Structure formats: structure tokens, C-alpha cells
Amino acid sequence: ETGVTQTPRHLVMGMTNKKSLKCEQHLGHNAMYWYKQSAKKPLELMFVYNFKEQTENNSVPSRFSPECPNSSHLFLHLHTLQPEDSALYLCASSLGTSVWNNEQFFGPGTRLTVL
Amino acid sequence: DQQVKQNSPSLSVQEGRISILNCDYTNSMFDYFLWYKKYPAEGPTFLISISSIKDKNEDGRFTVFLNKSAKHLSLHIVPSQPGDSAVYFCAASAGNNDMRFGAGTRLTVKP
Predict the structure, then answer these.
(1) Cα separation of B80 and B20, whole Å?
(2) In this predicted structure, what is the pLDDT of residue B1?
(3) What number of CA atoms fall less than 13 Å from residue B38's CA on the CB side?
(4) Per-residue pLDDT for A1 more than 70?
(5) A99 vs B4, B36, B95: nearest CB
(6) What is the H or E stretch that residue A69 is in?
(7) pLDDT-derived band of residue B98, with 50, 70 and 90 as boundaries?
(8) Which of residues 40-99 of A touch B (CB under 8 A)?
(9) How far from A79 is each of A61, A82, B15, CA to CA, in Å?
(10) Which of A11, A27, A83, B2 is deepest in the core (most CB within 10 A)?
């Protein structure tokens, strides 16, 4: 049990579908993150939430829409995705976002395939 | 732009020997560096970190070295064990939310 769970673990969707990824952390952390891991590429930071407020949006296309209803839950709503969006989507949490408390704990990821 | 680079996609080492994983960065504002380890079907797990005020941090079999002038850090694992076989990610941050990761190096430790 890593303390950060993600559902579903695998998702296949068509380009016209709407789906959501869910992340939940049981660590009492205040910051949550979405990352995209494409094959042989660095982890790409997508969004950061700190105390439920979005603090980073790294030029992510609007077809990805995050939602953070509370510090323990983070969603990534997906709509009209493209095949190149197929990747592993990782959620992470940290106690805070300063350099001394931003060590991140990751979930297992959702393997997304867009057909 | 790729501010954190791990130029070796893979590394194979014999059990008991030293594993050295390398990482280079370009952003001189980075002041905190971390190594994460990732097994298949799991998310990355934090391994060890170092701040820019140090040049070495040791934790058991794992030691991270930082060379700020060369913008280079390395992770040494000694002795290497088969259970160390995983993908290792180098990460760096500039004291803000934005942590940048390298592409990872797959370490294989052979028995």
C-alpha cells in the first residue's frame, strides 16, 4: 500500500469518449500532482494542486481537465483525446510544495490507451 | 526543453559490484535533487535526495554525489543486489512546485 491509489489501472477509450481518472491519497498530504509518462520520455508535470487550489498548469491542452474537490482526492477528466495522449498517467502527493517538504509519493498510475 | 537528462537508458551490473547512475541538468536554479526508483506496474518511490548545499548524501547502500560546477549528479549503489533492478529517475526542483524528471535509466543487476 503506497498510500496513493489510482483508478482505473487500465483504460482504453475512443477519441470521442469522456472518461475520468481518479486519485486518492491517504497520507494527510496537502499537495497533489498529475504527471504524464510517455515511453522513453521524462515524466511531464501536468497539474499541481496545493490545498485544493491549482498552482501549476504546464500548458496542458484543455481536453485534460483536473478537479480537486479536497486535499485527498484528485481527478483528471478526459474528453476528445488523441492517440498521442496514450501514456501512463501518474498521480502523486506531497506534504507541501516547498523544497523541504515536496518529496512526492506516487500512485501506481493509469495506463491509458486512446484508439 | 529537457532540463534533466539521463543519457544512459540502461545499465547492467553484476551482483555485488557498484552501480553508478548518472544525471545531468541544465538549469542552474535547481537546488534540490532526488532519485526515484520505479518497479513495473508501480509508481516511482522516493529513494534519496540532496540539496545544493551538500556534495554528498549517503543512506545505506545508496550514495548521491552532486557536482554543481558540472551540473551533474550520480547515484552509487554498492553492493548492487538483484532486487535493485528497476528504472531509476533523477529529479530536480528549484524550490517551487515544478519538479523536473529525467527519462530514467533501467538498471539490471545480474545474479
Answers:
(1) 10
(2) 67
(3) 27
(4) no
(5) B95
(6) strand A64-70
(7) confident
(8) 40-43, 45, 48, 50, 55-56, 58, 90-92, 97-99
(9) 11, 9, 47
(10) A11
Rounded Cα gap, residues A2 and A27, in angstroms: 9
B19-70 pLDDT per residue, tens = 999 999 999 999 899 999 998 878 888 899 999 999 999 999 999 999 999 9
Cβ contacts of B52 within 8 Å, gap of 6 or more: B30, B31, B32, B33, B66, B68
Tell me which of B6, B52, B97 to substitute to probe the interface with A (most A C-beta atoms closer than 10 Å): B97
Beta-carbon contacts below 8 Å between A and B = 66
CA dist A101 and B99 (Å) reads: 12
- Nearest Cα residue to A88 out of B2, B7, B40: B40
pLDDT given for residue A20 in this prediction: 96
CA A27 to chain centre: 16
Number of H helices and E strands in chain B, helices first, is 0, 11
Amino acid at B72: H
Three-class SS state of A51: coil
User: Rounded distance, CA A66 to CA A33, Å?
Assistant: 10
Burial of A13 by CB count in 10 Å (0-12 exposed, 13-18 middle, 19+ buried)? Answer: middle
